[in-house]
């Protein structure tokens, strides 16, 4: 049975052969995921959009060197992650702390009850602020587990660390997030 990973690698192989429509298919498949991964890590919608665009440009430029025995998504994720780190480093050097806390794919509200909606929106803003106060590695692991719903094994594979380390980092990141979140409230 053909998997998404197999299909992704077939698209990369087609890109290596010069088929531009394969790149378009890959972009359509991953554009939302790329954007929301970046948004979760940098907290600004404009920067997240730029990061996701740059990630696809880098995939296209580097496709010829991609080893088809590897899976596409971990490679793509490492590109996004590195771009996010670079963006945050540049932001730190400018001492700018832009945060776009309005955009939230994970906010679920009761449309019938405005009070509940307002409370949940405020909690979401506080959660976003708290997440952005975490170190990149802490924020990354929380985003992958809780907002992308990735299993521990997949996170371990993606970050190239043992599963036990994922569990440990997640435990300490959650504790720190809870502390920071309670300070913000």
Features:
Arc Repressor Mutant, subunit A, single chain, 2 domains, mainly alpha, 185 residues, 75% helix, globular, Rna Polymerase Sigma Factor, Chain: A
Description:
The chain is mainly α. It contains 8 helices and no strands.
CATH C-level of the largest domain: Mainly Alpha
CATH architecture term of the largest domain: Orthogonal Bundle
Question: Count of DSSP E strands?
Answer: 0
Number of domains: 2
SSE order, as H and E? HHHHHHHH
SSE topology:
Elements: H1 4-16, H2 20-42, H3 45-62, H4 72-94, H5 114-133, H6 136-147, H7 152-159, H8 163-184
Nutshell version of this structure?
The chain has helices at residues 4-16, 20-42, 45-62, 72-94, 114-133, 136-147, 152-159, 163-184. With 185 residues, it is mainly α.
